[in-house]
Every structure is written in C-alpha cells, then in structure tokens.
Amino acid sequence: MASSDPTPAADHRPQGDGSAPPARPRVLSGIQPTAGSFHLGNYLGAVRQWVALQDTHDAFYMVVDLHAITVPQDPAELRANTRLAAAQLLAAGLDPERCTLFVQSHVPEHAQLAWVMNCLTGFGEASRMTQFKDKSAKQGADRASVGLFTYPILQVADILLYQAHEVPVGEDQRQHIELTRDLAERFNSRFGRTFTVPRPHILKEVAKIYDLQDPSIKMSKSASTPKGLINLLDEPRTTAKKVKSAVTDTDTVIRYDAEAKPGVSNLLTVYSTLTGASVAELEQKYEGKGYGALKTDLAEVMVDFVTPFRTRTQQYLDDPETLDSLLAKGAEKARSVAAETLASAYDKVGFVPAKH
Ligand code: AMP
Ligand code: TRP
After folding, report:
1. In this predicted structure, what is the pLDDT of residue 137?
2. pLDDT for the residue numbered 15
3. Which of 279, 278, 301 lies closest to 40 in space, CA to CA?
4. Which terminus of the chain is more solvent-facing, meaning fewer CB atoms within 10 Å of its CB: N or C?
5. What number of other Cβ atoms are within 10 A of residue 24's Cβ?
6. Residue 16 pLDDT more than 50?
C-alpha cells in the first residue's frame, strides 16, 4: 500500500562529510502512554505500520511520556502506563533487534531541542494547531497548560532529532507533521542545512478508524460512549459484543461507501486490514447476507487478534527487568543519534560549545 503523500522527504543534512549515508531511510514515531490499553485506531492507523516499516527502514519508536504530562497524570499510573505502552508495542510485533524502542524522557535532547524550536515558532502559528484547540476547549482555556500549547513543538523536536525521512501516524497528526516540515525548513534556511525535512506516512485506508457507535467521529480514548471504542486489552468477550452491536444503517447491503454507509464501511476496513482480504472480496463473500453475518465473523476475527496480543503483553509486563533493560538499550541507541543532531543545532544557533 502506498503512502498518500508522494512528496519525497528532502534530506538537508550536510553531504560529503565522510560518514556513510544511512543504508535505509529513517522513520520515527511516538505514542502516548495515557490510556492504558491501545485502541483499534492506534493499532490500525499507526502501530501496524510501525511494525511493517522495521523491515525496510531504520526505525525509531518511542513512548512519549513528556507529551503525556501536558495534561495532568497520576505519577504511579503514568509509570505503569509507560511500561504498559512499551509492552503493547512489543506484543504488536516491534522487535528490539530490528528497531530502536525507547522512552522519550530517557533522552534529554528532546526537551533541549524543543526549546530551540519553541523560539522559532510564531505564537499565532502554534495557536492554529487544531489538536490544541480541541483539547484546550475541552478542558477550558484557563486550565490548559502551556505544555499543551507547545505540545506540537516538542513533537517537531522528536522528529528532527532523528533526521527522520518519514513519520508513520494517523490522519489526526498530519498538521503536526506539516509544522515539523515548516520549522525544519525555517531552521535550515536561517542557520544552514541541519535537518531532514520529513514527510508523513499515512495510509489512506486506515488513516481514520471510526467509532463503532458513531461512525461520524474517529475512534478515540475520549469517546463519548465506551461501546464505540475497541480497547485491545479488553476482555475478548467484551470486544466481540462491541463489534456485534456496532451501528450500521437501515439498509442491508454490505458495500463499501464511506459517505452513504460509514458504519459498514468502517467494519469492512477493519476486517480487510486484519485478515488481508480485500474489501472487494469481502463484499462478494457477504453478498446476499445480512449485517449480522458480517459482524459475527468480524467479532471472531477480532477475538483471534486480541487474545494472543493480550497474552504477549502480559508476558512482557511479568518481566519488568527485561523490559526496562530493553528500553535502556533503546535509549542509549537513540541518544547517540539525538546528541549528534542537537550538538549540530546548538552550534548553528550560535551557542558556545561546552568544554568536556
Ligand atoms: P495517540 O493515542 O493520540 O498517542 O495516537 C497514537 C497514534 O494512533 C497516532 O499516530 C494517531 O494518529 C493514531 N490514531 C489515533 N486514533 C486513530 C484513529 N481513530 N484512526 C487512525 N489512527 C489513529
Ligand atoms: N502527537 C502524537 C500523537 O498524539 C504522538 C507523538 C509524539 C508523535 N511525538 C511524535 C508521533 C513524533 C510521531 C512523531 O499520536
């Protein structure tokens, strides 16, 4: 499946410095440890691509705990959810031998480069970020933190530190990747070529997975009713029930039509992605059959998917020492790349190098 964004990433790093170019293009992405369980939208929209890209790219993936504290977090829960997020990423198929998996706060360069990027971002520019507007509207402007306001700029730093060519995310992150491109270009033109200008890696088919009860809104941890949200760590029975009670329409024909039949189309997308069967094949398979048959089969597909996922996640959680040391190794690898980029950015900005 092709990315929906054909623009090639521009590599603006200095050339000819004697260092071998990376054999593979680089990807970087992150996920917040805020909800406990990942939901089906996270998995299909992002994490599934992360797993696939390990084989073709030099891949860096992280649990973004610095981003998590832009809204209040209980410390014990944050710590537990950070390990839980890492365990779920491994259970989903990330392989520490084939990618670099780490926790954002273990690499101090993220906060350091974010400061530089903060100083390059216009106040109005940051004010236009739609995710901030949505989130701050929900909390009330007075309760929203300055951290929430600068959240996208920390994300910019995350991406630029690794000279990432591509950023695999769901559609809701597109604006943040656009901001990253703008700031990379601004920095490069003001101070000289320093950063790779990345492009989003967004798969059209799964860029937005919809709520099962209200297929006009994206599936999200802040869904209005939990019935529309598939958490991967829920009891498989609960998941089956939610699939079977998904909202469809009064028609009975199983056909992909995102406009006229958003509920059925969403189910077909999920079914197709999890099984590898094309939507056309599924339409044919269910010709003349009712929505009940589709939902019953999809419920089974979902149960077969989440059952081993839950077991594997638990196995990683049962051995926190191994998990922590794996994350420590990831952070070490990440830091070696991030430190080099930060040093170059600091130098370009005009900071006097610290003597060691
Ligand atoms: P978050 O849970 O906000 O940290 O999101 C993690 C990743 O999942 C991001 O790349 C999002 O774009 C992606 N994502 C979240 N919700 C959905 C959804 N409903 N459909 C597709 N991708 C999603
Ligand atoms: N903002 C992203 C989200 O909510 C998470 C994130 C943080 C991220 N840093 C990133 C995604 C860097 C891609 C690249 O999903």
Report:
1. 84
2. 45
3. 301
4. C
5. 13
6. no
pLDDT > 90 in the chain, percent? 85
DSSP label of 37 = S
Q: Specify the pLDDT at position 8.
A: 55
Q: Which ligand is nearest to the CA of 222?
A: 1
In tens, the pLDDT along 328-355 reads 999 999 999 999 999 999 999 999 998 8
- Is 135 catalytic? The answer is yes
Rounded distance between C-alpha atoms, residue 114 and residue 109, angstroms: 8
- Report the pLDDT value the prediction gives residue 264, as an integer from 0 to 100: 96
Dump pLDDT digits (tens) for 117-150.
999 999 999 999 998 888 888 877 778 999 999 9
Q: How far does the centroid of ligand 1 lie from the alpha carbon of residue 172, in Å? A: 7
pLDDT score of 152: 98
Ligand 2: which residue has its CA nearest to atom 13? Answer: 29
Ligand 1, pocket residues at CB < 6 Å: 31-32, 41-42, 45-46, 169-170, 172-173, 207-209, 218-220
Does residue 261 carry a catalytic annotation? no
Place of tokens 């794996």: 326
Ligand 1 atom, smallest distance to 169 CA: 10
Can you state the angle between helices 236-244 and 291-317, rounded to 10 degrees?
Answer: 160
Whether 208 sits among the annotated catalytic residues: the reply is no
CA distance to 36, 46, 250, 272, 302, per residue, from 266 (Å): 24, 16, 16, 10, 14
Structure tokens at 51: 């797993």
Q: How far apart are CA 218 and CA 110, in angstroms?
A: 29
Residues 6+ apart with CB under 8 A from 98: 54, 55, 59
Q: Which atom of ligand 2 is nearest to the CA of 170?
A: 15
Average pLDDT over residues 233-256: 95
Task: Quote the CA–CA distance of 271 and 52 in Å, as a whole number.
Answer: 18
Angle value at C-alpha 182, between 176 and 184, nearest 5 degrees: 100
CA pseudo-torsion sign 311, 315, 318, 321: negative
Strands (E) located in 176-228: 199-201
